[in-house]
């Protein structure tokens, strides 16, 4: 089929298009209406239809391929490999569902999952989905303050966690961070369920903390039927950073998400039931939700969960996994490939990767050098895909499962089915001409699978993302883009204060708030600066209250580590006595960023004091 026709049908007659795609999943009760867009920008998909994510990911496959692998959890940190068939996974998720019910979790309740990349994390997610509890997974690399703000917002009745994660052979204790986060939080959960991996000692809080080993014994063979959910009931919340310091809870539905994932597994990732999918992300990110846990399983594929570094025990580890499990489709991030490119290719060439049919990369811009190198090494198509936590599945890519359109270096591809992508001129609001830079926007309704709202705050959803354009409403991705005459898009960076470090999305405001909590910092500006491996790194320029106190770069980094986690730690902290601002007091972050990257600071007509820029320059220069 021609992709152009497929795409046209998806946006001209979306209801017919998605009605057909809805047949990719199981429904307990059919829907009465494909789309309800009576209250834009809120889109309700598959109204009245009842389904369940856990049923579609697990139960559905037990009859036809119950003994085939479903979940393969590999840890090169603890040297363990555990494989669960669909039938075994079915037992595990029911056990988890039963345990959560025993701890008082009911349909609609939130369960916060703060876990390393172990199989139990996936069991907990699927267990929630099974009983209609709303999970909120928080990335294990986040520290107490980040975790506390998410606890406050989600108000979970239960937190699921573990003694520790592990990185490069070193245990990272989770429990003290969790206890500190709960102490900081104003919405304390009544129960905490803990998996003990034997990596770090845990102090139990009497009456609140429950051990997995003890509780599971009573629920080993539990039978917990699926709770059928109306398609628009919430399935999960996933927090993401934005312009303010307060993370937004991206809320997703059940039916629309299941259908969108099933469609993307067919048309984008081209995975067949029985094959093995390997996404190297983490369950704390959206890729982990969509393409480690739900997507592959909904497609009947085995999915690999990997805990460890891409270069340990040696840089051939991922390719040895591909070889051993005959992975057909792999999903990673450009950063990881850049790390591997720095290693000897010998490690990769030792392994037979002939099962692999395509490598998908997302999360940050894919540069031509990285793309060309890995394509040469693997000899398979490299498929860039552009999307965000909010959308849950690709906005731009090449849907090879529909038509084998060529990829174009530097471009993630064309608009995916269901997405009415428009490039809009920032000042005039008019649609851009070919090769004209604009903001990447999507005309509502967003397709199935995209966020329903900001958890608990419909108004924030509307105010943050949407603008009215005549009769239409436009959703902003907050990314700059440009489209060539053939319809291929190129992404040119964020329009807001969000930065992308090694594929991880971070808000500079959150980092600034953390740094200013240091008693000797009066003001700070954090910007994202280009980095050869990580894409971007955070760099901070701080003003001290008292220069004589001798506050060092390390002190400030330690504050960020402790509050937000090492992922948010700035790569450098420079000290200045003034920050560039407009006359109305707005920080000129883009000018600071430009100077850091050796570019011109841009239009400075509104700057209050140009000498502040020279300070930035001098600080950078002095460090060379
Ligand atoms: P997240 O919500 O963490 O997935 O981050 C989404 C953001 O990452 C997007 O808004 C883009 O700024 C960036 N991004 C994701 N994928 C790509 C890609 N393939 N090319 C360029 N930028 C990307």
TrEMBL record:
Keyword tags: ATP-binding, Ligase, Nucleotide-binding
Domain Acetyl-coenzyme A synthetase N-terminal: 3-57
SUPFAM superfamilies referenced in this protein's UniProt entry, alphabetically: Acetyl-CoA synthetase-like (SSF56801)
Species whose genome carries this gene: Duganella guangzhouensis
Pfam family, one: ACAS_N
InterPro entries: ACAS_N, AMP-bd_C, AMP-bd_C_sf, AMP-binding_CS, AMP-dep_synth/lig_dom, ANL_N_sf, Propion_PrpE
Residues annotated as domain AMP-dependent synthetase/ligase: 59-445
Gene Ontology biological process: propionate catabolic process, 2-methylcitrate cycle
Domain AMP-binding enzyme C-terminal per the UniProt entry, residue ranges: 510-586
Family: Belongs to the ATP-dependent AMP-binding enzyme family.
Classification via Gene3D superfamilies: 3.30.300.30, N-terminal domain of ligase-like
One Gene Ontology term of the molecular function aspect: ATP binding
NCBIfam families: PRK00174.1, PRK10524.1, propion_prpE
Name by which UniProt lists this protein: Propionate--CoA ligase
Entry superkingdom: Bacteria
């Amino acid at each position: 089929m021609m992709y152009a026709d497929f795409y046209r049908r998806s946006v001209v007659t979306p209801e017919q298009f998605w009605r057909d795609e809805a047949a990719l999943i199981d429904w307990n009760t059919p829907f009465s209406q494909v789309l309800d867009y009576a209250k834009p920008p809120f889109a309700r998909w598959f109204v009245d239809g009842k389904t369940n994510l856990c049923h579609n990911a697990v139960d559905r496959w037990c009859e036809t391929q119950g003994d085939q692998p479903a979940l393969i959890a590999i840890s090169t940190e603890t040297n363990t490999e555990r494989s669960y068939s669909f039938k075994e996974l079915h037992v595990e998720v029911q056990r988890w569902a039963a345990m959560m019910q025993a701890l008082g979790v009911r349909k609609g309740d939130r369960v916060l999952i703060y876990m390393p990349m172990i199989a139990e994390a996936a069991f907990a997610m699927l267990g929630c989905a099974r009983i209609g509890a709303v999970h909120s997974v928080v990335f294990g690399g986040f520290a107490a303050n980040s975790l506390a703000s998410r606890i406050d917002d989600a108000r979970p009745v239960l937190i699921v966690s573990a003694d520790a994660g592990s990185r490069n052979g070193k245990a990272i204790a989770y429990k003290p961070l969790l206890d500190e986060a709960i102490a900081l939080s104003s919405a304390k959960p009544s129960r905490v369920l803990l998996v003990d991996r034997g990596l770090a000692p845990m102090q139990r809080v009497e009456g609140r903390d429950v051990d997995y080993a003890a509780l599971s014994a009573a629920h080993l063979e539990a039978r917990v039927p699926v709770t059928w959910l109306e398609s628009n009931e919430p399935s999960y919340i996933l927090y993401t950073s934005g312009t303010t310091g307060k993370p937004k809870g991206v809320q997703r539905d059940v039916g629309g998400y299941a259908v969108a994932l099933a469609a993307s597994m067919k048309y984008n990732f081209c995975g067949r039931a029985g094959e093995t999918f390997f996404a190297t992300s983490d369950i704390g990110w959206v890729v982990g939700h969509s393409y480690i846990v739900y997507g592959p399983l909904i497609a009947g594929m085995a999915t690999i969960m990997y805990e460890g570094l891409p270069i340990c025990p040696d840089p051939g580890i991922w390719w040895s996994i591909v070889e051993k499990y005959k992975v057909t489709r792999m999903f990673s991030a450009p950063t990881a490939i850049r790390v591997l490119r720095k290693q000897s290719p010998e490690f990769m060439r030792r392994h037979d990767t002939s099962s692999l049919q395509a490598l998908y990369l997302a999360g940050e811009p894919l540069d031509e050098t990285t793309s060309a190198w890995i394509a040469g090494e693997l000899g398979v198509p490299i498929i860039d895909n552009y999307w965000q936590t909010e959308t849950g599945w690709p906005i731009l890519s090449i849907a090879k499962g529909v038509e084998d359109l060529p990829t174009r270096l530097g471009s993630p591809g064309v608009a995916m089915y269901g997405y009415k992508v428009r490039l809009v001129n920032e000042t005039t609001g008019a649609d851009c001409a070919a090769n004209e830079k604009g903001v990447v926007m999507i005309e509502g309704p967003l397709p199935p699978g995209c966020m329903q709202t900001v958890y608990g705050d419909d108004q924030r959803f509307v105010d943050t993302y949407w603008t009215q354009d005549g009769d239409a409403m436009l959703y902003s991705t907050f990314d700059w883009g440009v489209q060539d005459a053939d319809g291929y898009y190129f992404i040119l960076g964020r329009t807001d204060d969000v930065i992308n470090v090694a594929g991880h999305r971070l808000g500079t405001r959150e980092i600034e708030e953390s740094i200013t909590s240091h008693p000797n910092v009066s003001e700070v500006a954090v910007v994202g600066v280009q980095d050869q491996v990580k894409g971007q790194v955070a760099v901070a320029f701080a003003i001290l209250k008292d220069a004589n106190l001798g506050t060092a770069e390390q002190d400030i980094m330690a504050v960020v580590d402790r509050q937000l986690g090492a992922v948010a730690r700035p790569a450098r902290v420079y000290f200045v006595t003034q920050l560039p601002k407009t006359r109305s007091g707005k920080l000129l972050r883009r000018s600071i960023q430009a100077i850091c990257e050796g570019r011109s600071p841009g239009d400075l007509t509104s700057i209050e004091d140009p000498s502040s820029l020279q300070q930035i320059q001098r600080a950078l220069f002095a460090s060379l």
